[in-house]
Every structure is written in structure tokens, then in C-alpha cells.
Write a sequence for this structure.
């Protein structure tokens, strides 16, 4: 079993996934817009969607090593809600780099710093309203 975070956006999925790819050092490996979705099971596909949403992202996938992050644009995808994405990294330098990259244009709730459980830990909300934690754990 594998758990894969899926983020919802309101028209910013393409931009956000490119931002995350750069910040996290990954690559967007697939992206499909609503206008490109084929009809299925006799339904007309997305042809009946409002014209201004046809170029929104129906599915996007970002890969960072063996980790996967998925996203799409869709109705009701505004706030980050009660879900936070946690990024565990192996070095202090990587923690500081990832935190700074994700915080660019966002809001820092807890600056990245040493804690009793981590060499570095911090919390932020990125420029797209998604909450993140960055961890470089101390080994027991």
C-alpha cells in the first residue's frame, strides 16, 4: 500500500505543481487538462463544463524520487483545510533549502529551527494556501 497526497486547487494546479517541482527537486511526470479528457461510459466527457474551466488541470502528478504528489483543479478546492503535507529530509541543508523554497511568497507560521525532536523543523503555508511542515529528524 502507498498513500499519495492529492491537492485540490481553483485554477492554479499547473502553476503550483511547477512551483513544487522546483522547490522539492522533482519533476511533473503527467498532466491532463479537462478539455483533453476523453468521453467514458457513454458520457460526453468534460465538453459540458464551463468554457473558462476547460484549460484547468484534471490531473497532475509530481515525482520526487519514489515519492508522489498529485493535484487537480476542481470545485470547492479553496482552502488547505486540516491537512498538512510533511516533508522529511536527510540533512539540515536540505531542510533549510526546501523550507525557504516553499515559503517563497507564502506565510511562515513557525520559522525553521532546531527542536527537541528535529535538527530542523518549521511550518508554513505556501503561496497557494497549502500548509506544509519540513522536518530533519534527530535519530534516536
Amino acid at each position: 500500500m502507498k498513500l499519495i497526497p492529492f491537492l485540490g486547487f481553483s485554477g492554479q494546479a499547473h502553476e503550483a505543481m511547477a512551483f513544487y517541482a522546483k522547490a522539492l527537486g522533482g519533476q511533473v511526470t503527467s498532466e491532463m487538462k479537462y478539455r483533453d479528457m476523453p468521453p467514458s461510459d457513454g458520457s460526453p466527457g468534460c465538453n459540458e463544463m464551463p468554457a473558462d474551466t476547460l484549460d484547468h488541470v484534471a490531473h497532475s502528478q509530481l515525482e520526487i524520487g519514489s515519492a508522489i504528489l498529485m493535484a487537480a483543479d476542481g470545485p470547492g478546492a479553496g482552502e488547505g483545510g486540516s491537512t498538512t503535507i510533511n516533508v522529511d529530509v536527510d540533512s539540515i541543508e536540505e531542510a533549510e533549502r526546501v523550507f525557504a523554497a516553499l515559503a517563497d511568497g507564502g506565510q511562515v507560521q513557525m520559522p525553521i529551527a532546531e527542536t527537541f525532536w528535529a535538527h530542523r523543523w518549521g511550518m508554513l503555508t505556501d503561496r497557494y494556501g497549502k500548509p506544509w511542515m519540513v522536518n530533519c529528524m534527530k535519530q534516536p
Q: What stands out?
A: Strands lie at 6-9, 27-33, 57-64, 67-73, 85-88, 107-113, 118-125, 131-137. The longest helix spans residues 13-24. The radius of gyration is 17 Å.
